[in-house]
């Protein structure tokens, strides 16, 4: 008999919440759920923003340390938003995904933060170091020592 971990209980609770009452513009991809530790979530660009009508896929990877450790979150292709904090390989420069993570946060709050980040964008462009970063980065964006700054 296997024992359910705290992480699995928390992930299952968030999974049910996202299935039963997702925020506007956020949809769990049930067909991708072959492992409780990896989800695909679809998000839509908010109305009256540069991303209105656009659809994106987020890949969430959890560890057994969740929620005390943030999930790994990246955009999946072929459509990666062109944004000053989103690299062309899907990596997202957002502090709540690393140093500003709190166990009080959830998949829903991460999705809403990403939609908010996209919504506040004034100009679609890649980060200035996109080509160098994509060529030299680790596959896991959590291995990056991000330097957060306002644009």
From TrEMBL:
Catalytic reaction(s) noted: S-ubiquitinyl-[E1 ubiquitin-activating enzyme]-L-cysteine + [acceptor protein]-N-terminal-amino acid = [E1 ubiquitin-activating enzyme]-L-cysteine + N-terminal-ubiquitinyl-[acceptor protein]; S-ubiquitinyl-[E1 ubiquitin-activating enzyme]-L-cysteine + [E2 ubiquitin-conjugating enzyme]-L-cysteine = [E1 ubiquitin-activating enzyme]-L-cysteine + S-ubiquitinyl-[E2 ubiquitin-conjugating enzyme]-L-cysteine
InterPro entries in alphabetical order: Ub_conjugating_enzyme (IPR050113), UBC (IPR000608), UBQ-conjugating_enzyme/RWD (IPR016135)
Protein name as it appears in the record: N-terminal E2 ubiquitin-conjugating enzyme
GO BP terms, alphabetized: protein ubiquitination
Residue ranges of every copy of the UBC core domain listed in the record: 6-151
Secretion signal span: none
Top-level EC class as recorded in UniProt: transferase
SMART domains: UBCc (SM00212)
Alphabetized UniProt keyword annotations: Transferase, Ubl conjugation pathway
Matching PANTHER family: UBIQUITIN-CONJUGATING ENZYME E2
Lineage, uppermost ranks: Eukaryota, Metazoa, Ecdysozoa, Arthropoda, Crustacea
Listed GO MF terms: ubiquitin conjugating enzyme activity
Annotated EC: 2.3.2.23, 2.3.2.25
């Amino acid at each position: 008999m296997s024992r359910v971990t705290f992480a699995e209980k928390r992930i299952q609770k968030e999974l049910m919440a996202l299935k039963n009452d997702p925020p506007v513009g956020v949809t769990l991809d049930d067909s991708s759920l072959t492992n409780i530790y990896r989800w695909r979530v679809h998000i839509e660009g908010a109305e009256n923003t540069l991303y209105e009508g656009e659809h994106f896929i987020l890949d969430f990877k959890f560890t057994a340390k969740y929620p005390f450790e943030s999930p790994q979150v990246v955009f999946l292709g072929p459509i990666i938003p062109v944004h000053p904090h989103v690299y062309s390989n899907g990596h997202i420069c957002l502090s709540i995904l690393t140093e500003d993570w709190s166990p009080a946060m959830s998949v829903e709050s991460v999705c809403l933060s990403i939609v908010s980040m996209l919504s506040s964008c004034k100009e679609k462009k890649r980060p200035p170091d996109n080509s160098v970063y994509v060529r030299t980065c680790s596959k896991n964006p959590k291995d990056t020592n991000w330097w957060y700054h306002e644009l």
